[in-house]
Amino acid sequence: MKKILITGGAGFIGSHVVRRFVNKYPNYHIYNLDALTYAGNLENIVDIEQKQNYTFIKGDIVDADFINTLFKEHQFDGVLHLAAESHVDRSITDPLSFVKTNVIGTMNLLNAAKEIWKGNYEGKRFYHISTDEVYGSLGETGLFTETTSYDPNSPYSASKASSDHFVRAYGETYGLPYVLTNCSNNYGPNHFPEKLIPLFINNIINKKSLPVYGDGKYTRDWLFVEDHAVAIDLVFHEGKNHETYNIGGFNEWQNIELVKLLCKLMDEKLGRKAGESEELITYVKDRPGHDLRYAIDASKINKELGWKPSVTFEEGLEKTIDWYLSNEIWLKNVTSRDYKKYYDNQYNM
Ligand code: NAD
Ligand code: DAU
């Protein structure tokens, strides 16, 4: 039985990946390592906690001794590394915690994998899950490809870029078998309501204002989280060693247009009158260093591995809204505790 470590599996994307691997691969034992920060939530994976081929481990990837001991004890065959500090706005107020988790944490995992595999890399693989934000900002045209130069602008993207460089450096220097993917903006169930889509869904439900940064003309490419999980599965099993794949939704939206669509769909779902939620839109102070546009060219993963998104944006948004409307308790739980303090600080209310 192969032993696979997934880090960050109590978070948004990680929980979808862990569920897929536990259910689809009974011949793997999946170890889910997560520190359960504000973004980690065992409620995201409650349906798999009793599975025979699954173990949850609470722990911090920044703690090198703990990580080394864990790797020695379990002798993992593969690592899917998703644990990270992931929110750009938080990286602006607390950049150091991003360096700790995203850079040092990744280094600790690389060192531990190198140490237990000792150059015997047959059947071993380190998969680093990263972001398109490492490429910086596009103008009105163009797409990020796998050969686009790195040009990160936020502390978050700088920390992810640094971790990407270390993964490749371990591949070149020590021969560590790695694959790396850079993905665009995900959305879907279990998304913590600090990010645009879940934050605005929660605010619309509660008739709170919708804080659009700057002029709202910033553009992102959106991908349904389950489609990302499928791509991750494919790259882990069929991607070529030492290769990078861009993953994207072929689905660019200006923030303001996306917010208007979300308002329309929510009004329909909530039985509110047309245009009611749009009245909540409030333009607020811009995010410092705000990247204008991200857009991914995902043709490499499409041509080489046959992956493409399966869900249209309207379908994905509808599934997402339905999930939030039928998971009121989840939403209440994650918006209690420290959330209110974060929200008030971030939006000065
Ligand atoms: P998330 O913030 O929802 O979850 C991160 C998880 O990592 C949480 O469960 C948290 O408890 C855990 N974690 C944080 N610090 C840790 C530490 N020191 N030790 C152990 N666990 C720790 O993030 P997400 O949106 O699911 O993103 C997952 C990964 O995918 C990240 O690496 C992120 O950079 C990348 N990514 C995210 C997106 C996106 O749109 N969300 C897009 C592309 C890439
Ligand atoms: O591109 C991939 C990245 O997408 C991931 O690597 C990150 O982990 C993930 O958080 C996401 O980053 P963004 O900064 O693009 O996502 P966010 O949801 O924070 O913001 C999306 C856009 O919406 C961005 O242009 C900022 C804007 N925004 C966001 C918030 C939270 C607002 O206008 N108002 C808000 O309140």
UniProtKB/TrEMBL annotation:
SUPFAM superfamilies (alphabetical): NAD(P)-binding Rossmann-fold domains
NAD(P)-binding domain residues: 5-320
Swiss-Prot/TrEMBL cofactor(s): NAD(+)
GO molecular function: dTDP-glucose 4,6-dehydratase activity
Keywords, in A-Z order: Lyase, NAD
Enzyme class: lyase
GO annotation, biological process: nucleotide-sugar metabolic process
Catalytic activity: dTDP-alpha-D-glucose = dTDP-4-dehydro-6-deoxy-alpha-D-glucose + H2O
NCBIfam families attached to this UniProt entry: dTDP_gluc_dehyt
Family: Belongs to the NAD(P)-dependent epimerase/dehydratase family. dTDP-glucose dehydratase subfamily.
Name assigned to this protein: dTDP-glucose 4,6-dehydratase
